[in-house]
Amino acid sequence: MPNPCPIVLDLDGTLIDSAPDIHACVNAVLRQHRIAPLGLPRVRSFIGGGVELLWSRIMAACRIDPAHRPELIAAFMARYHDATALTRLFPGVTEALGRLADDGHPLGICTNKPMGPTRHVLQHFGLSQLFPVVIGGDTLPKRKPDPAPLRLAFDQLGGPGLYVGDSEFDADCAAAMPAPFLLFTGGYRLKPEAELPHLAAFDRFEQLPTLVADAAMTRPA
């Protein structure tokens, strides 16, 4: 195909539905500290900005004394590092990634998920070999929506390309680069699709290779 280009993808809410595992880890910590558990939709709405923001939102929702923050996050990370039992790939992800790789697109990950859990979940689903570049939420001092992590991912892949994500964090990060953004509408976004700047949107991963091909054809060789 003409003009292969780097493709960087978000992870949670884009390639994987990890909310059930995150929810389970959160509630295990809350119960351990005799705090009432939260429902899955509430926890899902807190996902996207990384562990620190996740727990800022949980602590505000549960009115937890900020003095307990370090121990709560430490207890969460001990469970979260290898939590994959409830996590699932979104339908069609493996096939779409295989097609993109076969078409010559260098693939990378840019996520606010910490590097340890990111590496573990990619290995768990047999995807590690597809991603020579992985930027986690603790790779740099700044996280999405700051463009620094996405910029680093593109630099390591050899140049500018497309970003694929599901949330406000991803859309704002791509806009700040700026980079063309493809929006997966089946993830964890809170705002309406129309309020997120994007080149194109999709709700099934079998659509992604065609969207990438269309966008790549408009890029200079």
TrEMBL record:
GO terms for biological process: carbohydrate metabolic process; DNA repair. One of its GO terms (cellular component) is cytosol. Pathway: Organic acid metabolism; glycolate biosynthesis; glycolate from 2-phosphoglycolate: step 1/1. GO terms for molecular function: metal ion binding; phosphoglycolate phosphatase activity. Keywords: Carbohydrate metabolism, Hydrolase, Magnesium, Metal-binding. It catalyses: 2-phosphoglycolate + H2O = glycolate + phosphate. Its EC number is 3.1.3.18. The keyword ATP-binding does not apply. InterPro entries: HAD-like_hydrolase_sf, HAD-like_sf, HAD-SF_hydro_IA, HAD_2, HAD_sf, PGP-like_dom2, PGPase_prok. Its cofactor is Mg(2+). The keyword Hydrolase applies. Pfam families: HAD_2 (PF13419). NCBIfam families: HAD-SF-IA-v1 (TIGR01549), PGP_bact (TIGR01449). PANTHER family: PHOSPHOGLYCOLATE PHOSPHATASE. Belongs to the HAD-like hydrolase superfamily. CbbY/CbbZ/Gph/YieH family. This is phosphoglycolate phosphatase. It comes from Paracoccus aestuarii. The gene is gph.
